[in-house]
Amino acid sequence: MTDPRILVIGDSYMSADVFLRAFEQRGLAADAVTMTIADPTWDTSKIHEFEGDPAEVALVAQGYDVIAFHAAPLTAQVLAALPELRLAGCARGGPVNVDLAAAKERGVRVTTTPGKNADAVADLTIGFLIALVRNVPASVRDVDERVADGRPLAESTFEGARWFGREVKGLRLGLIGYGNVARLVAERARALGATILAYDPFVDPASVTDATIVGDLDTLLAQSDVVSVHARATAENRHLIGAAQIALMPRGSFLINTARESLVDEQAMLEALRSGQLGGVALDVNEPDGPWRELVAEPNLLLTPHLAGATYETLARGADMLASEIQAFVAGDPLRWER
Hints:
- It holds the Pfam family 2-Hacid_dh_C.
- InterPro entries: D-iso_2-hydroxyacid_DH_PdxB, D-isomer_2_OHA_DH_cat_dom, D-isomer_DH_NAD-bd, NAD(P)-bd_dom_sf.
- The two termini are 20 Å apart.
- The chain has 2 domains: 6-116 and 311-331, Rossmann fold (3-Layer(aba) Sandwich), CATH 3.40.50.720; 118-303, Rossmann fold (3-Layer(aba) Sandwich).
- Helix 1 crosses helix 12 and helix 5 (118-133) packs across helix 7 (180-191).
- It is an alpha/beta fold.
- Helix content is 35%, strand content 15%.
């Protein structure tokens, strides 16, 4: 294809400017628009986690051969309204805002950006790990309470006796899933002296030389001081970590979830925190219908608002990955991350 018409659709998370800078560096000319949060007027039952109205996408993308976006809704109706569209580039690892079946039916190719946020998520996971084993959540909360009550802060080394923790060196870190993020977590944790265990039924143990791959989840849980969840969420693995699984973990161990909220039964997790079975929990995601009000009251819980992948580097990397895919598409070369 020669000189395709390319449209960039920005949103509140990934601006059009991020795309345009990456495209310009690769010599790609593109037009740009921005989607905003709006109540959809067209059916969105086959997609989720989107921003904008499908009807608006269908309007602004008329006549374009290629569209590049992060959160714009690409439904069957949108695809039907864009007969000239040939390639949709979604700057996400999982294009949940794209009706893939409808795209395939209409011959529209879809490519994505898997692993674009892997370094960012791995960094936060290690931050969570250190914070948990050193009692940072509870100690920071104690400082806040002292300030609120007008009490003096700690002035003596002996105050630290309240907050004895663990060093990362010598810890057994169990990783559930051993894909892009987990391997980077393992690399960072190993540099700090941790021993790495991993469970992933889709990974050939013979192909892994930097971690001990265990044969079943129960073994991983029983042998880990800290368990970090990195599996891809499916309908089949909802609440992969529940009461029975937490009971297998050593008493006082730690749980981290920077993957998807559905992977952990948060009610069971809350009960384990209260009983001391879990010594601490760090979550970057939480179930919207879970006991989050009770969870945030727990002193040994660290909760962030799904910011694991929110770095400037992640955005730039995702835009460049799509730009490289569009270059390949124009040249007639295979797409590296086509769905």
